[in-house]
Write a structure and sequence with these properties.
- The complex is a heterodimer of chains A (198) and B (309).
- Chain A is an all-alpha fold and 198 residues long.
- Chain A has one domain.
- Chain A has eleven helices and no strands.
- The longest helix of chain A has 30 residues.
- In chain B, a hairpin with a 3-residue loop joins β3 and β4.
- The longest helix of chain B has 21 residues.
- The chains are: A mainly alpha (198), B alpha+beta (309).
């Protein structure tokens, strides 16, 4: 039995629901660590850490299809949990920005959201993800029909690119780590383009 | 050997009030040095004299000051300098002083320090990334060193250069950054009594990650102006290049005075996060010239600071 066959066999037996607590754990662990040992800049550590988890999960969610096409792995039943947890981390990241970093200082926040390109890009990614999260359930698929539902969820392609761009733009120089995320995001989206054009 | 005496030229513009204040201070410092024993920079405790230029604000913890740094020579992460800077050899160290001076030369650091008075200067430090610390530096006034070099009449700027040694500073192997790091000040800024050449912090020699063995500290400017691990000081007639300005002139001006009214194009400079203040502390409003306006605002009289940012 090949690796992909054994993974698929295991996946048939393993339910998706444990993925929610499993993917929640790194976020709680980060929050706990920052509470225990704040270090020089705990707000930044939490804000950046949660943002990076969000980006990792967005990338992971977009890996499901290429893994099936190219590696014969069928992980589709886990994709909803990955996507919803990505959205959870985006919300947590945004909440830390609003509550801990800026303490609802609306004057500054409004200036940030209207004037700072990397904030605008991040907020756009968040807004795009809202309808995706809201329709990540069986009822929505049934109501919308698979075609309409899939069109809404193409938003993930734009969101992952904007998310990675947001990371690239907040650094003072072109840095390797955010550029690697952006490159991966672009490759994963580019992989879909031939299918979308057809 | 007594203090070097020279006829100052451009540097005479130090305000008279500051000059008088400085004399009082030196008298006090001499007394304290006698009381505290000889100042020996190599010793663990530097026994630096207190200074009237110090803020009364609570200093940031030693741990935070020495573990949260921007020093791209050792990597772009805040923790990279503390992790990798131990590789740097800081002894022997010499500084090449040249350009428009009457006493050019390649000076051993210990020879420079022989003639300098070390003081403790507790300064606010504001990074361009909108965070701040309070650091108890130990150092001498740059004005004393420049006076010793004896600037010529046409000298108007001071250029600084960081060590270039990729085998010890692994970040310098990153070819996308224009190494070595360079910075510059106008001569009157360099001669200002607040402008410090630091050799220590918390009464100890500078840790490598903070720019050992000799760095600039200009507390009313964004932190990147305070160039670290200096090996070259050159007096020039024209405005010298500054690394971040070369990388992105729109985002980092030559002056880079702390200014809450001029945003970085990508983020606001109106407030900053205080390092070590914890998870639930709010940001603090940033003050013009980082709160040193009374002492330095007159340096920029008549200048449009939104243009000369």
């Amino acid at each position: 039995m090949s690796v992909s066959q054994s993974v698929n066999a295991a996946a048939r037996k393993l339910p998706a629901w444990p993925l929610y607590p499993i993917l929640l754990f790194p976020g709680f662990w980060l929050f706990w660590t920052v509470l225990q040992n704040p270090g020089p800049n705990p707000v930044e550590a939490l804000e950046h850490g949660l943002g990076e988890y969000a980006l990792k999960l967005l990338v992971l969610g977009l890996l499901v299809t290429p893994l099936r096409d190219l590696g014969g792995l069928n992980l589709i039943k886990y994709r909803r949990a990955i996507g919803l947890m990505a959205f959870f981390y985006v919300c947590a990241h945004l909440l830390v920005y609003l509550v801990l970093d800026n303490q609802f200082w609306w004057d500054a926040l409004i200036k940030d959201i209207t004037k700072r390109p990397y904030i605008i890009v991040g907020v756009l990614a968040f807004l795009i993800l809202i309808p995706l999260a809201v329709t990540s359930n069986n009822l929505s698929i049934r109501k919308l029909g698979p075609k309409r539902w899939r069109q809404i969820h193409y938003g993930a392609y734009l969101a992952v690119i904007l998310g990675a761009a947001h990371f690239v733009m907040l650094k003072k120089t072109w840095q390797t780590e955010p550029l690697v995320y952006l490159a991966i995001a672009v490759i994963l989206v580019a992989y879909r383009i031939p299918k979308l054009i057809r | 050997m007594g203090r070097f005496k020279t006829a100052l030229k451009y540097s005479d513009i130090t305000p008279k009030a500051d000059f008088l204040n400085r004399r009082q201070l030196m008298t006090g410092a001499a007394g304290m040095t006698l009381a505290g024993g000889l100042v020996t920079p190599a010793a663990a405790a530097l026994n630096a004299a207190k200074s009237e230029w110090s803020t009364t604000e609570e200093p940031t913890s030693y741990e935070d000051v020495t573990s949260y740094n921007n020093f791209y020579e050792f990597g772009t992460g805040k923790g990279d300098p503390a992790q990798y800077a131990h590789a740097l050899t800081t002894d022997p160290w010499s500084v090449e002083i040249g350009g428009l001076v009457n006493n050019p030369g390649n000076y051993a650091l210990e020879d420079i320090l022989k003639d300098m008075t070390l003081e403790e200067r507790i300064y606010r430090f504001r990074c361009v990334e909108a965070w701040s610390m309070v650091v108890p530096w130990v150092g001498f006034q740059l004005s004393d060193l420049i006076a010793k070099a004896d600037p010529q009449g046409n000298a108007k700027y001071v250029a600084f250069e960081t060590l270039m040694r990729p085998e010890e500073m692994h970040g310098q192997k990153n070819g996308s950054f224009p190494w070595p790091y360079v910075e510059g000040l106008r001569l009157d800024e360099a001669m200002h009594p607040l402008t410090l050449m630091a050799t220590g912090l918390y009464d100890e020699p500078l840790p490598n990650q903070n720019g050992a063995p000799l760095r600039l500290v200009v507390p009313w400017k964004y932190g990147f102006k305070s160039i670290k691990s200096i090996v070259k000081i050159t007096l020039t007639e024209k405005e010298p290049p500054a690394t971040w300005n070369l990388i992105n002139a729109r985002e980092y001006g030559f002056y880079s005075n702390v200014n809450p009214n001029v945003s970085h194009p990508r983020w606001s400079q109106a407030s900053h996060r205080v390092i070590g203040s914890g998870l639930f502390a709010s940001k603090e409003p940033t003050e013009m010239f980082n709160g040193y306006g009374d002492a330095v605002a007159s340096l920029y009289d008549g200048m449009d600071l939104s243009k000369f940012y």
